[in-house]
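Running this now, will post back.
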Amino acid sequence: MNFDSVQKKKFMNKLFYGLPPFDQFVAKGDLEETEDIFLSRKEVMKKISNQINNTKHSLLIPVIGETGNGKTHFMWGIKNTFNIEAFTTFIALPRSKDKFYYYVYSDFLEEFATSHLREFTQNFGDQFGANEHLFGFFRTHNTVKVFMNAYESLKDEFRYKTALEQCVSVTISHLMNPEKFQVAERWLLGELMEFDDLFVLNVNEDLSGKHLAETMLQLLINNYNPGILLLFDDFDKASHEYSSLGTSYFEDDFDDDSENNEEDETLIEKIVNLLVHSNNFKVVISMGFADAENILSAFKEKLADKSLMSDPISLTNITLNDVYQLYLERLKKFCYANKANHPVIELSLNDYTSQNISDTLFYPLTKDIINHIYEVSDGNARRVLKNFKRIFDALIFDELKVENLNIEYKNHISTF
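Update: finished.
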């Protein structure tokens, strides 16, 4: 591409009026991250993908890294990869202790959605006889028989029998009873329901009732064939915040087959409970180094079966090639969004590590400037991005001229 002085001036004009490429420098679990995973972390991602796909029992995978080195970006890489077969989603810190499982289930179902839910109920029902045919043609409508097949087969795996009865009953109704389908789907999606709707389903409570969401989550995890993977980012911060959470305003309900109170359990105990009582539950948690030892020790103490937790994965700081990738991808995304001409748009991912990349591709910065930013930022992704932002802000607000960039850029970056 011809990128002469005229084209460079046009690009800078686009930069002045478009959304700058480095405005976002903090990744968050609730804001979708679409950037590719750093090249230096491809092997780590491959290792995690293999662990999740090949482990047939529940598994906790801890990811540890210093603040700002791209833990959340890495978690988004897990979420977006096509190499993991399990349905994968983030979970956020629930809003109250006593309804932990209800909020986790509700947040999970928001992304799991009706299409996956219907796939689950179909496979679940067929597993227990819903696909039997009468006279070789007609599917059975004997919901009682299918319910009993399922309940009798599963009851020894579950702690709360009353809750299991209701969860299995509604799941079977969703699949086999057209008249109850819509109200059953609302129940399974975690909606709060009126007495009349509960009467139609012949159940006592919606999923906000005691032990129901926990049981339904376990039922779904154990019987959704592709598997389920939950991502809990910043688990260390969440663990501290969880201890200060109050209880909800839901009316207290007491299940006749347990005296256990949800609000008495720590966040670590909640995760352990799901790991121990589910057949194929996968969870990845991220944390900083400061609290990692205490958190991992607590998990080891609570988990009698040590195979349920893998060795922690430690994320090192990013490499210089990762910084090239980060800069060029952000620049390319800016060009596409603002219809700006720049030679970076012709660059492929495989080219990012080439030693022959010309300075033109890094315009308005240079390779030497980026190398220096990497050095002063100690390979910390957030610090690198903040320094990129400082320079681009200075260019946009006319505090720094492009022609003086090589001389004056150091006045606009931080050495932290």
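Residues 5-28+318-412 form one domain. More later if anyone needs it.
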